[in-house]
From TrEMBL:
Matching InterPro entries: DNA/RNA_pol_sf, Domain_X, GrpII_Intron_Splice-Mob/Def
Highest taxon in the source lineage: Eukaryota
Record field: compositional bias (Pro residues): 27-42
One GO term (biological process): mRNA processing
CDD domains xref list: RT_G2_intron
Signal peptide: none
PANTHER family named in the record: NUCLEAR INTRON MATURASE 1, MITOCHONDRIAL-RELATED (PTHR34047), NUCLEAR INTRON MATURASE 2, MITOCHONDRIAL (PTHR34047:SF1)
Name of the featured protein: Domain X domain-containing protein
Residue ranges, annotated region (Disordered): 27-67
Organism: Ensete ventricosum
Length: 733
C-alpha cells in the first residue's frame, strides 16, 4: 500500500504505520515488492496488476489498448438484459460473470459516477485513456477477487477531482484519512453502478406491482393515484411503519433473499463483502468538550469555484429536501452498498408484498348484491369517477388492497373490523418470523375512513354526496334521478405543510401562522431570491398536483413565501414594514426596491439599457393563478411506460403473435404488404421468361400483360373474394 512513499518518510512514521496496520487489518502492512520480470520478446509491456494470459480471453489484459475491448454499445447490452429478464421473469440468474467481464458496462458506470461527481456528462469518446486502463484494472480485480471495499490509499481508480498524492501527506493527514468518516471512494461507486445495471432488470421483472418506492417509473404520485383509483370502497385501514428495516437487516437475511433469484457466486460474494466490511464512522464527538475547545474563528479566505464546478445553492437544497414527506425521508444505506441499498431493501420487502398478494386472494369473497365488485373481480360503476361509491345493501363484498412506499404500507379492508384485526395479528407474526421485527397493535393501528388517514402528506377521508345520476332507459329516454353515495377525498394536509414551514424557519405559530424573514438569502440579489423561491413554489404545486385542495394549499405556500421575502426586503432596504415593500415592489415583488442611498432611475429604462437583470415576480400570488387539481383517470392495471414497451416488444417478437395476426388477415380477406410485394416479384420473374424481349414500341404492352397475368393469378388464388381483388387493383394503381 505504501510502495509510493519514500524511505525517509517511512522511517520517520514507522510507529504510526504499524498502528494503522494493526487497527485496520484489511490494509496490508508495507512490504517491498520485487520488480516485475521483463516482458517476453514479441509482446508489449503488461499493465500493472495483470497476468500474462491469452489475449483472446476476456479476462486477459488488452495488450494494445483497452478501447479494443469496447466492441458493443452498452445501452444495447442493458436493453437485451431487460428484454431477457421480462421475457422469463421466473428464470434464475445463475451466470452473471460474462456481464461483469463486459468493459462497456464499466465505461457506462464510470460515466454515471463521473456525472454524479462533477455535475457534467462525459461522452464516451472523451473518457481518457488512463481512466480506461484503471477501469480495466478494477474490472480484473473484481473478477479475481482482489477488490476490497472502502480502501482509502491503494486505489485502482481515482476520482476525476482527486489529485491527492499519498506520498505527500503528513502524519496528521494520514491519520485523519484512515480514521475519520469519508465519502465512499470513487471506485466503489463505479462497482455499485455496474452491479445495479446487472441486477436491477432481473428483480424489476419479479417485483410486485404493489410497491412503488426506489423503482424506475414509480413515484409517490403513482401511489396517490392508485389510492384514488382503487381504495374508494374500503372502510378500515391499517397503516404500518417498517422503516427500521431500512436502517439495516442481518446479513444472512439479505443474502438469503438475494440468492432466491441470483445464484452467481461472484456477484453474491461481492455483495456479501460490501455488507460485512466495516464502515469507518469516526470517533463519537463530545459536544460539551467541543464547545469548551471552540475558539474564535479566524478569517478564512473564501474558496473560488472552478469554471466546470457546479455552483450549489445550499439554501435551495435544504428547502427542497425539508419538505419531503415522512414516508420518503429515510433511504437505506447498508454498508458499502451505496446505490445498491435501495434495490436490496426492495428485494427483502418483496417477500411482504408477495405474502400480502396471497392474503388478498384468500380474503376476497364477492357478493352478488354489491354494486362495486362482481364475482369475477371486475369493477362496476363509472370508471371515469372511481372515487364515487354508490350506497349498497348490508351484504357487501369482502375485499382488501395493499400499497407500499419504501418502509411504509397502507392496507384497505372492506368488511368488519374483526377481519382487519385478524390480518393485523398475522402480519405481526410474519414480520417477526421473516425480518425479526417486533411489532405490536399500537404500531399497526386500525382506523376508520371517517377519522382521516394520513399517508404521504395527504389525508384520505370520505363524505356523503347526493349526485344527479343520468342514464338512458329503454326507448332512448334519458332519466335523471337523485342518487346517494360516498366520495373518497384525497386532500393535502395543511397542518403538515405548516409543520414543514416551521421546521425551515419560514413561520412561527400554529393556528395563526406568521411568516418570518429568511435571512439566509440576505446577501443574494432580488432577482436570484425570487427565482429560487419560484422554483420552490413550482415544486410545491407539482407535489400537490393530485390533491383536491391544491389551489388552497399552494396559495397558502405562496402567501408564506411572499410574506417571508417581504420581511427580508424590509430589513435589507430599511423599509420598516411589509406594506411599504408591497407598495414599491408590487404584490408579487416583481419591481426593484429602492435602496436607502437615494432615488434610482426608472426600472424599465435600466432594463432597456441592459444594466439590470429582469426580476421575475412570485408565482401563485392569487388563487386564480394556481392550476386545478389533476383528475385524469388512472387506468386499472397500470404499468410504467418502459415496462409497457418491453412487454409489447416481447409480444411482437413471439412467433405465435405473428401467426395470430396472419390468421386475422386471412379471415378478413386481406393481404399484407410483404406478401403482396413477394407475389409481385415472383410473378414478374416467372412471366418475364415467357415473354419475348420488349422493344421500344411494345414496352407498354408488355407491362400491361405482366400486370394482367399477376391479376389473373391473384384472382385464381384468392377465389371470388372481391375485397382481395379490389386491394390488389388499388395496389397496381
Amino acid at each position: 500500500m505504501y510502495r509510493h512513499l519514500s524511505l525517509p518518510f517511512l522511517r520517520r512514521h514507522r510507529r504510526f504505520l504499524s498502528y494503522a496496520a494493526s487497527a485496520f487489518p484489511r490494509v496490508p502492512p508495507y512490504s517491498p515488492r520485487p520488480p516485475p520480470p521483463p516482458p517476453p520478446q514479441g509482446h508489449p509491456t503488461l499493465l500493472p496488476g495483470h497476468s500474462s494470459r491469452n489475449p483472446r480471453d476476456p479476462l486477459s489484459t488488452a495488450y494494445d489498448d483497452p478501447s479494443s475491448l469496447l466492441r458493443d454499445d452498452p445501452i444495447s447490452i442493458c436493453s437485451s438484459l431487460w428484454v431477457d429478464s421480462f421475457r422469463d421473469p421466473s428464470a434464475t440468474a445463475s451466470s452473471l460473470a460474462p456481464l461483469l467481464r463486459r468493459l462497456e458496462l464499466w465505461v457506462l458506470a464510470y460515466q454515471k459516477a463521473y456525472a454524479d461527481e462533477t455535475g457534467s456528462y462525459l461522452p464516451k469518446s472523451s473518457v481518457p485513456s488512463s481512466a480506461l486502463h484503471s477501469l480495466l484494472a478494477l474490472r480484473n480485480a473484481v473478477l479475481d477477487g482482489r477488490f476490497r471495499w472502502g480502501v482509502r490509499l491503494d486505489l485502482l481508480l481515482r476520482s476525476p477531482r482527486d489529485t491527492t498524492d499519498p506520498a505527500t501527506l503528513s502524519k496528521r493527514k494520514l491519520r485523519v484519512l484512515l480514521t475519520s468518516a469519508q465519502p465512499p471512494p470513487f471506485q466503489d461507486r463505479v462497482v455499485q453502478e455496474v452491479l445495479l445495471m446487472i441486477l436491477e432488470p432481473i428483480f424489476e421483472a419479479r417485483f410486485s406491482q404493489k410497491s412503488f418506492a426506489f423503482r424506475p417509473g414509480r413515484t409517490a404520485h403513482t401511489v396517490i393515484r392508485t389510492i384514488r383509483r382503487s381504495f374508494a370502497g374500503y372502510l378500515w385501514y391499517i397503516k404500518g411503519d417498517l422503516s427500521t428495516i431500512l436502517d439495516g437487516l442481518p446479513t444472512g437475511l439479505i443474502i438469503n433473499a438475494l440468492i432466491r433469484d441470483v445464484r452467481d457466486k461472484k456477484v453474491v460474494d461481492l455483495i456479501k463483502s460490501a455488507l460485512t466490511t466495516p464502515v469507518i464512522t469516526g470517533r463519537p464527538v463530545n459536544e460539551e468538550a467541543a464547545k469548551k475547545k471552540k475558539k474564535k474563528r479566524k478569517y478564512q479566505k473564501k474558496r473560488v469555484l472552478a469554471e466546470d464546478e457546479p455552483k450549489p445553492d445550499p439554501y435551495w437544497l435544504q428547502t427542497f429536501f425539508g419538505f419531503a414527506p415522512e414516508e420518503a425521508e429515510k433511504q437505506p444505506n447498508w454498508g458499502h452498498c451505496g446505490a445498491l441499498s435501495s434495490l436490496l431493501a426492495n428485494v427483502c420487502l418483496d417477500e411482504l408484498d408477495k405474502w400480502m398478494e396471497g392474503k388478498i386472494k384468500e380474503f376476497y369473497r364477492p357478493s352478488k348484491s354489491d354494486v362495486i365488485w362482481t364475482g369475477d373481480d371486475v369493477e362496476q360503476g363509472n370508471t371515469s369517477w372511481p372515487e364515487f361509491v354508490p350506497t349498497s345493501g348490508p351484504d357487501k363484498t369482502r375485499k382488501m388492497d395493499y400499497v407500499r412506499y419504501g418502509g411504509h404500507f397502507l392496507i384497505g379492508v372492506r368488511g368488519p373490523r374483526a377481519d382487519a384485526a385478524v390480518l393485523r395479528k398475522q402480519l405481526i407474526e410474519f414480520c417477526d418470523q421473516r425480518y425479526q421485527l417486533k411489532l405490536d397493535n399500537e404500531s399497526l393501528p386500525i382506523e376508520h375512513i371517517t377519522k382521516g388517514i394520513m399517508f404521504l402528506d395527504h389525508v384520505l377521508c370520505r363524505r356523503v354526496v347526493y349526485p344527479t345520476l343520468r342514464y338512458t332507459a329503454t326507448g332512448g329516454k334519458i332519466i335523471s334521478e337523485k342518487g346517494v353515495g360516498t366520495l373518497l377525498s384525497v386532500t393535502a394536509s395543511l397542518r403538515q405543510c405548516i409543520k414543514q414551514f416551521r421546521k425551515l424557519e419560514f413561520l412561527k405559530g400554529d393556528r395563526d401562522p406568521d411568516p418570518q424573514p429568511c435571512f439566509r438569502m440576505f446577501h443574494a440579489t432580488q432577482a436570484h431570491t425570487n427565482a429560487q423561491m419560484n422554483k420552490f413554489l413550482q415544486t410545491m404545486a407539482e407535489w400537490y398536483r393530485y390533491a383536491d385542495n391544491r389551489k388552497k394549499v399552494v396559495n397558502f405556500c405562496s402567501y408564506i413565501v411572499r410574506g417571508s421575502l417581504a420581511k427580508l426586503y424590509a430589513a435589507k432596504y430599511k423599509l420598516r414594514s411589509r406594506a411599504k415593500v408591497y407598495k414599491i415592489g408590487s404584490r408579487n415583488l416583481s419591481r426593484p426596491l429602492k435602496d436607502k442611498k437615494g432615488q434610482s432611475p426608472e426600472y424599465q429604462n435600466l432594463l432597456r439599457m441592459g444594466l439590470l437583470d429582469s426580476i421575475d415576480g412570485l408565482q401563485y400570488t392569487r388563487m386564480s393563478l394556481v392550476p386545478e387539481a389533476d383528475y385524469t383517470p388512472f387506468p386499472s392495471g397500470w404499468r410504467p411506460d418502459h415496462e409497457k414497451f418491453l412487454l409489447e416488444y416481447i409480444r411482437l417478437l413471439d412467433p405465435k403473435t405473428l401467426e395470430e395476426q396472419r390468421c386475422c388477415l386471412r379471415e378478413e380477406g386481406l393481404i399484407t404488404p410483404q406478401d403482396y410485394v413477394s407475389l409481385l416479384v415472383w410473378n414478374y420473374k416467372k412471366n418475364t421468361l415467357m415473354l419475348p424481349p420488349p422493344g421500344e414500341s411494345n414496352s407498354y404492352k408488355v407491362k400491361e400483360e405482366l400486370l394482367g397475368s399477376i391479376s389473373n393469378e391473384t384472382k385464381d388464388g384468392m377465389g371470388d373474394d372481391e375485397a382481395s381483388i379490389d386491394a390488389l387493383q388499388a395496389a397496381h394503381m
